[in-house]
Design goal:
The complex is a heterodimer of chains A (211) and B (201). Chain A has 211 residues and is an all-alpha fold. Chain A contains nine helices and no strands. In chain B, helix 6 packs across helix 7. Chain B is rod-shaped. Chain B starts with a helix and ends with a helix. The chains are: A mainly alpha (211), B alpha+beta (201).
Chain lengths: 211, 201
Amino acid sequence: MPENPAENLNEERLIQRVCNGEHELFYELVRPYERRLYAAALAILRNEADAEDVTQEAVLKAFKHIRQFRAEARFSTWLIQITVNEARMRRRKQHADLIDPIDHRDEEGNYVPQDFADWREIPSETLERKEIREKLGQALSSLGEKYREVFILRDMQHLSIDETAKVLGISIASVKTRLLRARLMLRDLLAPGFGGNWSSRLTFEKGSKPW
Amino acid sequence: MVVQCEQVWREVSNYLEGDLNPELRLAIEQHVRGCSRCTAVLDGTRNVVHLYGDERMFDVPLGFSYRLRHRLEETTSSRKRTALGWVVAFAVAALLLASFEVARSSSWGWPQLRNRLAQSTTSIPPNMMVVAADDGKVFHVPGCRYIHDKAHVRTLTAGEALKEGYTPCVRCMKQYLSAAALAGFADAETASAAVRASEEE
């Protein structure tokens, strides 16, 4: 996400030019975020084909409504918002009759961590391994939808708590509660692997103790 | 201030967000130092945030960017076309109207032909003698080598032939017309003689 002023300026200029009819420049605006948008759609829909289709739809929608973009929001946040809305709509259409059972758990009750495996440090290089990324993806998929959404926006897309609340249309307090639970649940799901199984395999593979 | 494990678990997310008052923050840090379970929870949660926040988590399928770009290009170019569409549609409509007007107006004569050979059939002298086959569609100058059925031709005037629905042979009639136009021949015999002469050349 472009945080530095130069890139933001560039983005502003590009938006202006697209509005003035240089439509072919729109992809340049989207390109830095396309992977994130896909990740957001995938995390909500849990299906690659749907996620790709929804990402495309969202980008087309953003293009059609570019004039409605207001500079008080970040362009990336605006894109993510459109993508999340599209993904939610698609999911609702697909699962109109299905109810996520996890969503019915009491949100206010305290979540008690179940696993206390020692998971001190993790080298980021593990992310180079596709299987690790898949494990993380599977763990995320297993969360209830409302936790998944908050976690994706805050911890993967790096939206602020405020922005997350706005995009999802929920209160800041709800964002915080769900975020806490999402993080703790993911830790419970991943700690056994990172605390033991996966690291021992890593030790075996690399011939040194990774953590 | 002393906190229990449950309170640490409740605040672990806020702690990582830096969203705690200094007093509570300090109390949690003190507790975690002496509690292996809370250390595991705090470290693990921090790792979760760290791992999922990595750019590398954003895996896209092969060809994803290409397909997105392609779909976008389809839309942006078709939108361009619709924007231009009205202009084009108006231009076409105006041209059509203009051409109708031109066609209707009597002041507009026949256009100047580029080729003097391309004369209309009306300039064939009606009393000129031609030949045509009964089951054919075309009449010829006598002696034309493109007569289809030479055994069953009859002789008639060009005017009669046209009235009966025959059309002039594009070969010999063109030649006849050009020869006639050039030499100012009036009768068919000299014309056909000229044709034969020109064919022999």
